Structures are given as C-alpha cells and as structure tokens.
C-alpha cells in the first residue's frame, strides 16, 4: 500500500478530530455516538479528558495545570515510562510524559473488538536527547479507544528496537487522576489484605488491613500483585469507577493531601479533595525486553452508577452487560 493510501485508510477507520488545545498544543478528540468523548494531547500522549454520555468529566485536571513543555500536564492520564517515580536514575516518572508523540497512521495489526471503531494510535520513538540519558532504541505504540458504552481503553505496546543486541529494562504506570466529589467520601475496593510499598516510609513493605481503603491523610503506596479489577466508589456522586488491567501487576494509590498540595505550583490548594490517583503499574518487577521483543500493558476504565454495597466487588454486577 502506498503511504498516501495508508493515511487514507487510517482516516476512514479512525473517526477522530485533530485540533489545537491549550497553548496551541495539538490534541485528538474521540467521540462516541451516545455522547461520550475523550481527548489526548500529542504532548505526552496524555489523556486530558474522558466524559460520559451526559458530558460529565470523569478525570481530574488541575485548573492550575501548565500546558507548556517541558512541564508535564497535572492531571488526566500521564504515561510514566521508562521509569516510574524515582525508582531509577532518570527524571521523576521518566520522559514519555513530556515528549511529543506522533499519530501512527499505519500501526502493526492489532486485535480489535469489531464494535469499537473510535480509536487513535500514537507512537513515541526516542529523540537524540533521550538516547543520551537512556541509550536504547524503542517504539512505544499507544492505542486509545473509546468503547460504544463510553469505556476508555489504553493499550501500550513497547518494543525493543536496539540494533546493538542489548536488552533494556523499564518500569511503567498509567498515572490516572480520577475526578471524585470529596476524597473523604471515597472508598477503594480490591486492594484489601495486599502487600504494599509505602513511598512515604522509604518504600518499606507493609500489609494492608482487611477493610476497603478510605482516605483521611496523605497516601502514596504501591500495592503489589494486585487483582485485575479494582473499584473506586464515590458515595456522593453515586458513581463507581472500575479499573481492569492486564500486564500491569501493581497499583499505585496517591493523594498528596493538603500540605503537599500547597507545595505544588500546578495544583490548587484544595484540589486534593477532588482527585484520587489509582495507577495501573509495573514497578516491583521491572520489565526486561530483548531486541525484537514486545511488551503489552492494558488498562480499561468504566464509570457506572454505584449500585452495589460495601464488600461486594462484583464487576459483573457493576457493569450491567456482565462483561468480564
Ligand atoms: O509530581 P509528579 O512528578 O507528577 O508525581 C506525582 C506523584 O506521582 C505518584 O505516582 C507517586 O507515587 C508520587 O510519589 C508522586 O508525588
């Protein structure tokens, strides 16, 4: 297929709009027939909006977010790669979140559910500056899909394209900022009794107690070997977020609370009350890829009316369609 034909095919298949966002930065807008939508900035490959079919925003983005390189955008879904947080010698959370990604007009074959046609493929390859700090050649393909019922799916495919025969190792997270009505009314289910590393206590290992997780102070924990489904219940909004993940064993839970909120220039003093980060991640056991090898990490988010009680995390019931 000629390159022009490939571009045309991609446009026919992907009914998306590309326009200018904040500070003239390019963004892609995905819209589903029933009214849900999502926005992704090429800067960072960063999701900045996910709305349900009533037009309600489901992600938190700070009103003080700075949409200006090299600062990463505060909120939405930053991609942490090739390093999560300060677990290594690179800048905090790696460099993918403050690089310019491109639209991948001709991605390699990808198994797609035939009912989901609203998606965009992005690609990130290292620039010279990256090779100086992380001397590896890679192709990072990100597919962002909006399902017919408004679910948001992110699939990352990372390939080692080194020609020097060297493997590379990375850690990763989808650093999702969920919008919540009031953090003190929120409960997370699915992480009870698990081991976690507490980033506020030198990454020491502890075991979570048996109750659902609630919030009354700063939290920064990496839950290990977590189930593939986690739920965030927002009592006030009567809304439940369900996170499904694959290839991402860990889950980071972060809320900076009042003192750290005040110390962040791109975060409002009271913003901590209205957000919660639950991040599907691969941190404890870094991923190693040999040249030619590819890794996949997938996250699927749904927002549904809260219709179940405490201790009954049953996404089959939550998601009326009973999908697993
Ligand atoms: O301010 P940043 O670099 O976006 O990071 C925010 C937070 O991200 C979380 O994932 C980390 O666990 C926290 O330790 C960190 O403070």
Automatic annotation (TrEMBL):
Is-annotated flag, keyword Isomerase?
yes
Q: Where does substrate bind?
A: 74, 92, 97
Q: According to the lineage, what is the superkingdom?
A: Eukaryota
Pfam families per record: Aldose_epim
Q: Which GO terms describe its biological process?
A: carbohydrate metabolic process
- E.C. number: 5.1.3.15
**UniProt keyword terms in alphabetical order:** Isomerase
Q: Name one GO molecular function term.
A: glucose-6-phosphate 1-epimerase activity
What reaction(s) does this enzyme catalyze? alpha-D-glucose 6-phosphate = beta-D-glucose 6-phosphate
List of catalytic residues: 175, 279
Q: Is-annotated flag, keyword Isomerase?
A: yes
GO CC: one term? cytoplasm
Among InterPro entries, the record links this protein to:
Aldose_1/G6P_1-epimerase, G6P_1-epimerase, Gal_mutarotase_sf_dom, GH-type_carb-bd
Family as reported in the entry's similarity comment: Belongs to the glucose-6-phosphate 1-epimerase family.
Looking up PANTHER family in the UniProt record yields:
APOSPORY-ASSOCIATED PROTEIN C-RELATED (PTHR11122), GLUCOSE-6-PHOSPHATE 1-EPIMERASE (PTHR11122:SF13)
Protein name as it appears in the record: glucose-6-phosphate 1-epimerase
User: What organism is listed for this UniProt entry?
Assistant: Olea europaea subsp. europaea
